[in-house]
Amino acid sequence: MKAAVFHAPHQPLTIEDVEIMKPKRREVLLRTAFAGLCHSDLHFMEGLYPYPAPAVLGHEGAAVVEAVGEDVTYVKPGDHVITCLSVFCGECEYCTTGHTNLCDNTEVKLLPGAARRMTWKGQVLNQAFNLSVFAEQMLVHEHAIVKINKEIPLDRAALVGCGVMTGVGAVFNAAKVEPGSTVAVIGCGGIGLSAVNGAAIAGAERIIAIDTNSSKLEKAKEMGATHTINASNVDPVAAVKDMTDGKGVPYSFEAIGLKVTAEQSFAMLRPGGVATIIGMIPFGEKIELHGADFLRDRKIQGTSMGGNRFRVDMPRLLELWRQGRLKLDHLISGKIKLNEINEGFAKLKSGAPVRNLIDFGVAG
Predict the structure, then answer these.
(1) Do 274 and 354 lie in a common domain?
(2) Which of 76, 107, 201, 306 has the greatest number of beta carbons closer than 10 A?
(3) What is the set of active-site residues?
(4) Structural domain range at position 299
(5) Span 17-24, mean pLDDT?
(6) Is residue 161 situated within a structural domain?
(7) pTM for the model
């Protein structure tokens, strides 16, 4: 099969012929249909987070089941699925208390470099995130996928595999936004726009979208934003305070992954408010907050993939799309081929697109 291979930070991915194993017990072989280009992958490509190379990156995708291994009963060949990096065992303390996204069982959630599912030029090729979506095929544990209705277009389904689940999940699961409240979202890429959309579905009265790109702010309005702030020419914290009679917001979301925006998300809270950090702040970087601000019950928290229980949450999100409430069509900027992946990431880095998808040409 063809796959985009990551060799080292700041080097282009190369398209290589890769061998993939046959499915073993509780493993599923997938034919990749669509893969989303996400900023998280870009973090690894730019060395902001370490990952053993060579590897195949990619974690947001939709696929068709080709074959199943022994003891797999959840899916069969021909089924349509969404992949998710929140692989779960179903037996650990996290899983049995309803926090499957935090599963720490390394027998199913293999540590970086532990998977032995692909080879390239006679050596083991590392499987990123237990998925490696930037390839024509994937070999994954059965608990890394969720089966979906075949009537759902696979390109829309792929978006739910990470960006949409993370953004909407941060609103629903992590922050638990209440109807009638005011929300601020910093960063209007795919995840931030999904948080905006999630806040609208949750019934927020005012949704303030913040970005430095005017076209993304216009897109945010389409997703449900009631107010926008262009942070290229104003202080977003001061602007949010002005919009809220000096009080600040009860909910803020940081969807970029920068020290400064994480600090801004906390600074714009009203007393009792909660800031949720969605973006991946570079590994080893610290954020600084004023200790006195905590005296008025302000809180800051992280979220892992929107606190998802993906086998429940993703089908529900797709049903919201069918109802016209979740906006997936607005998030697709374009479709590219696998051999155009470096150009696609260059566009992503420029801040221009919302989401480009790699189209592998798989018929539903």
Answers:
(1) no
(2) 306
(3) 38, 40, 43, 59, 162
(4) 167-304
(5) 98
(6) no
(7) 0.94
